[in-house]
Write a structure and sequence with these properties.
heterodimer; A: 114 residues; mainly beta; four-stranded antiparallel beta sheet; 53% strand; globular; B: 111 residues; six-stranded mixed beta sheet; five-stranded antiparallel beta sheet; 11 strands; 60% strand
Chain lengths: 114, 111
């Protein structure tokens, strides 16, 4: 069974640009969550999508958005990039939404904003 | 608000030692606790998931325990190997799949 995949693995963008990251969950998983990891703040929850609906949102500005497609694949978008958006972006999938299910993480997308 | 703390922040041991990593959380009303491993620049690999009704879980040389009442979990690694060198993170669900992570323990196992 294939794991969680994320594309691209590495990105370099310029301040002010926008970026779209993609996540394909494990087959059969319907929940996708996104996290930002930085050396200073650690892992922080961005949002969760389940059945194409955003279920939960972390404390990030509106420049961060996402969506989920009918095949459970998810994308996140960051508009008007800032230097502080440089981070490893991780997505995680689980069978369903809720608090009792194991989360499986992808390899991440390393975003560098210059 | 759920806060997760991991001690120590870093640990260096010689190969073959048994070691314990600690994780504490402030809200004991958790459904489960998950331990992860992260290699530098990589994603997270799930090691063990302990449900709230369980006291411990084992996988190979790893054993994780959970004490909800005291808000603590430990990850025991037996007979450590250089390949165990990584950062170990614990996490608890806060709201649906919003997981709260500790800052991690960076483990170095010296040959």
């Amino acid at each position: 069974k294939a794991g969680v995949t994320q594309t691209p693995r590495y990105l370099i963008k310029t301040r002010g640009q926008q970026v779209t990251l993609s996540c394909s969950p494990i087959s059969g998983h319907r929940s996708v969550s996104w996290y930002q990891q930085t050396p200073g703040q650690g892992l922080q929850f961005l949002f969760e999508y389940f059945s194409e609906t955003q279920r939960n949102k972390g404390n990030f500005p509106g420049r961060f958005s996402g969506r989920q497609f009918s095949n459970s694949r998810s994308e996140m978008n960051v508009s008007t990039l800032e230097l502080g958006d440089s981070a490893l972006y991780l997505c995680a999938s689980s069978w369903t939404s809720g608090t009792n299910y194991e989360q499986y993480f992808g390899p991440g997308t390393r975003l560098t904003v210059t | 608000k759920q806060e997760v703390t991991q001690i120590p922040a870093a640990l260096s041991v010689p190969e073959g030692e048994n070691l314990v990593l600690n994780c504490s959380f402030t809200d004991s009303a958790i459904y489960n606790l998950q331990w992860f491993r992260q290699d530098p620049g990589k994603g997270l690999t799930s090691l063990l998931l302990i449900q709230s009704s369980q006291r411990e879980q084992t996988s190979g040389r790893l054993n994780a325990s959970l004490d909800k009442s005291s808000g603590r979990s430990t990850l025991y690694i037996a007979a450590s190997q250089p390949g165990d060198s990584a950062t170990y993170l614990c996490a608890v669900p806060y709201n649906n799949n919003d997981m709260r992570f500790g800052a991690g323990t960076r483990l170095t196992v010296k040959p």
